[in-house]
């Protein structure tokens, strides 16, 4: 056991290497512009004052009154999501014959969404709808009727 310990220590010490006569390599210094007042990085961007760097999109949702005559539940989720859960859905709300008016936010403009209206009565098939960002509209809206 002592021999194994001595051999291990000797191996570790020789594995680390020695000082030798090699000269250390110094990494090149970062180069700076000759003009210290010149903006760098994102500060160098020229952006129109009306551009706010926001990518979120507000969507006004209107589910028509009397679309459903029984109690139901609506999920609005990412269209390509395999599972409907809190991570992929933007709206999860009860629905009745009075319809629904609300606004929600999607994270970017090329988002494609699906709405599924599920009935408490399982003998009624769910209703499915799709929505896609419309570049021609300044205010995004979705009417489900």
Automatic annotation (TrEMBL):
Highest taxon listed in the record's lineage: Bacteria
Record-given protein name: Lipoprotein
């Amino acid at each position: 056991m002592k021999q194994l310990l001595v051999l291990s220590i000797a191996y570790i010490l020789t594995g680390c290497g020695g000082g030798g006569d090699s000269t250390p390599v110094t990494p090149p210094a970062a180069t700076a512009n000759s003009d210290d007042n010149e903006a760098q990085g994102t500060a160098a961007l020229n952006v129109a004052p009306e551009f706010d760097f926001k990518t979120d999109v507000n969507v006004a949702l209107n589910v028509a009154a009397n679309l459903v005559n029984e109690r139901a539940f609506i999920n609005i989720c990412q269209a390509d999501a395999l599972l409907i859960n809190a991570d992929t859905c933007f709206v999860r709300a009860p629905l009745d014959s009075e319809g629904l008016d609300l606004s929600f936010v999607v994270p970017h403009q090329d988002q494609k969404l699906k709405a599924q209206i599920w009935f408490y009565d399982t003998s009624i098939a769910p209703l499915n709808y799709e929505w896609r960002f419309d570049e021609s509209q300044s205010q995004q809206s979705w009417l489900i009727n």
